[in-house]
Specification:
The complex is a heterodimer of chains A (about 110) and B (about 110). Chain A has no helices and twelve strands. Chain A is mainly β. In chain A, strands 2, 5, 6, 10, 11 and 12 form a six-stranded mixed β-sheet that branches. In chain A, strands 3-9-8-7 form a four-stranded antiparallel β-sheet, with no helix packed on it. The radius of gyration of chain A is 14 Å and the shape is globular. With about 110 residues, chain B is mainly beta. The mean pLDDT of chain B is about 95. The chains are: A mainly beta (about 110), B mainly beta (about 110). The interface between A and B is medium-sized, with 25 and 28 residues.
Chain lengths: ~110, ~110
């Protein structure tokens, strides 16, 4: 069963618009971790942000911000004032247990046009 | 080279052949992972390892074999390649900070089975 759902397959925006990526997860664990990774057209996977299940404080880091809500099992990610370089596939991932295995969502393709 | 490397980067093989994908990391990370990336599925875990000689199956292990005789190497072998194993394969490693630690990914190996 899919434990991480990214319902948005593709989002297209014009530069400087904000982009919000949705992520819904499923877990029975009380301790877990959530991640966002970026995969630009070059193909590598780049770690962006991380959140643990005990900290629902939302944060902003540069143009990135995230909204973690345990009540709705959501971990949404926002890019403010998008740029062409933000064009990539973004993956949400869930880590449960002590091994830190990641379970990824299917990814959301973000296309930013000038 | 420092970091995590994979070889070969591209491989074309025929159905039924044995193929080994190599993964090498220079950080002495204990944890290493193999994922495959297919359109619509995100990344799925094949095998993982917590240390030399400690490995376990992930979500999609059938048709694959791993070994870890040295901490820095984690080869993935397709014993008898099938077309369904055409995919992009990513190796990743994680340090000992705990399951909240981010995974660092190699550049990927694009495998085509004809």
């Amino acid at each position: 069963a899919q434990k991480v759902t990214q319902a948005q397959t593709e989002i297209s925006v014009v530069e400087k618009e904000d982009v919000t990526l949705d992520c819904v997860y499923e877990t029975r664990d009380t301790t877990y971790y959530l991640f966002w990774y970026k995969q630009p057209p070059s193909g590598e996977l780049v770690f962006l942000i991380r959140r643990n299940s005990f900290d629902e404080q939302n944060e902003i880091s540069g143009r990135y911000s995230w909204n973690f809500q345990k009540s709705t099992s959501s971990f949404n990610f926002t890019i403010t004032a998008s740029q062409v370089v933000d064009s990539a596939v973004y993956f949400c991932a869930l880590s449960e247990g002590s091994w830190g295995k990641l379970q990824f969502g299917a990814g959301t393709q973000v296309v930013v046009t000038p | 080279d420092a970091g995590i490397t994979q070889s070969p980067r591209y491989k074309i093989t025929e159905t039924g052949r044995q193929v080994t994908l190599m993964c090498h990391q220079t950080w002495s990370h204990s944890y290493m992972f193999w994922y495959r990336q297919d359109l619509g599925h995100g990344l799925r875990l094949i095998y993982y390892s917590a240390a030399a000689d400690i490995t376990d199956k992930g979500e999609v292990p059938d048709g694959y074999v791993v070994s870890r005789s040295k901490t820095e190497n984690f080869p993935l072998t397709l014993e008898s390649a099938t077309r369904s194993q055409t995919s992009v394969y990513f190796c990743a490693s994680r340090g000992d900070r705990g399951p909240w630690g981010e995974q660092y990914f190699g550049p990927g190996t694009r495998l085509t089975v004809t």
